[in-house]
Amino acid sequence: MEDLTDNEREEQLRRWWSDNWAWIIGGVALGLAILGGWQYWQRHKLQVAEQDEAGYLAVVEALESNNRDAAVQQAAELQKRRPDSPYTDQADLALARAAVERREFDEAARLLRGVADRSKDAELRLVAKTRLARVLVEQGKHDEALALLDVSQAGAFAALAHEIRGDAFAAKGDAAQARTEYDAAIKASTPESGIDSTFVELKRDALTPAPAPAADAPAAAQPAAEAPAK
To answer: Which of 123, 120, 119, 75 is nearest to 97 (CA)?
Structure first.
C-alpha cells in the first residue's frame, strides 16, 4: 500500500476530528470540572478546619482568662456546629481539666465520658478514658475506674493505664494488686508513655510491705515416758 499523500492525511484528520471532537472537548471539560471540584473541596476542608481550630482556641483563651462562662459558650457553639470535629473533643477535654482543677469531679466526669463515648479519634478516646479513670479514683469509684481501663486495648497508653489501675487498687487498700500494677507500669514505660517511672516507684515503695510468710511452728515436744513403777 502506497503512503498517503499530504492531502489524504489532512482529509483523514478532518474526518477523525469531525467524528470525535465532542468526546474530546467533553473529556477535557469533565477533567477540568473534577480538578476544580477537588480543589474547591480541599479549600473548603481547610477553611472548616481553621474555623474549628479557632473555636477550640477561643475555649482555651477564655479558660486562661478565668472566663468560664465564655469558655462553655464557645464549646457549646463548636459542639452545635461541628459535633464530629476532633477540636470539639479537645474543647471538652480542656473544660474537663478546668473542672478537675476546681474539684468539680462530676462535671469533669460528664465531659470526659462524652469524649470517650463519641469521639471518632481513637487516641482522643483513650486520653479521655485515662483522665476519666483518674477522676473516678478521686470520687472513690475504684471498681468503676478499674473496669474502664482495659490494658490490652490501651496501646501506647498501657503504662499509664497500669499506673492508674495501681492507684485504684492502692486506694482500695489492695497493696498486692497495686504493687503488681505499678511494676507493670514501670516495665511498660517508655519516654513516650507519659508516666514518671521514678514517681511510680515511689508510690510502689510506699505501699504497706507484703507480710512475710509465716515460719513453720516447731513440732511440739513429746511428753517424757513415765518411769516404770517399782
So the answer is: 75
The DSSP-derived string for 105-128 is: HHHHHHHHHHHHHH-S-HHHHHHH
Range 52-59, long-range pairs (CB < 8 A, 24+ positions): 52/78, 52/82, 52/85, 52/86, 52/87, 52/88, 53/87, 55/81, 55/82, 55/87, 55/88, 55/91, 56/87, 56/88, 56/90, 56/91, 56/94, 59/91, 59/94, 59/95
Compute how many other C-beta atoms are within 10 angstroms of the C-beta atom of residue 13: 10
Angle (CA) 23 24 29, round 5°? 95
pLDDT tens digits, 78-101 = 989 888 899 999 999 999 999 999
Residues 6+ apart with CB under 8 A from 177: 166, 169
Residues in the chain: 230
Say if residues 111 and 127 touch (Cβ distance below 8 Å): no
Q: Are 149 and 133 in contact (CB under 8 A)?
A: yes
pLDDT digits (tens, 9 = 90+) for 166-204: 999 999 999 999 999 999 999 998 888 878 999 999 999
End-to-end CA distance of the chain: 150
> Would you give the distance in Å from CA 128 to the centre of its chain?
6
- Whole-model pTM? 0.71
